[in-house]
Specification:
Blueprint (H helix, E strand, L loop, with lengths): L2 E4 L1 H8 L3 H13 L10 E2 L6 E6 L2 E8 L4 E9 L6
Parallel strand pairs: 1-5
Antiparallel strand pairs: 2-3, 3-4, 4-5
Length: 84
């Protein structure tokens, strides 16, 4: 089981979301504890340990550190804005 850490930017991103989207995304982030590589996960090209999952029109960008068993969430943004 992995520990989940949420960076300040991701926390701000989450707090700015509509409540129904917020609940859906938080549920998916919590599920990363048991399986940091869920179905549909994609590696971010050009990075070592950065991954992304889709939650509707939103993307959750996170890093997996298997050695210390930590999943660090960096950003939660709409798909149009997340890769800028």
């Amino acid at each position: 089981m992995h520990q989940i850490l949420i960076e300040k930017h991701a926390e701000k991103d989450l707090n700015s979301l509509p409540r129904d989207v917020f609940n859906l995304i938080v549920k998916r982030i919590v599920s990363l504890k048991d399986n940091p590589w869920p179905t549909g996960v994609r590696k971010i090209i050009g990075s070592k340990n950065d991954w992304r999952i889709r939650v509707g029109d939103y993307r959750v960008i996170y890093e997996i550190d298997d050695k210390s068993r930590v999943v660090k969430v960096f950003r939660v943004k709409h798909r149009k804005e997340v890769y800028r």
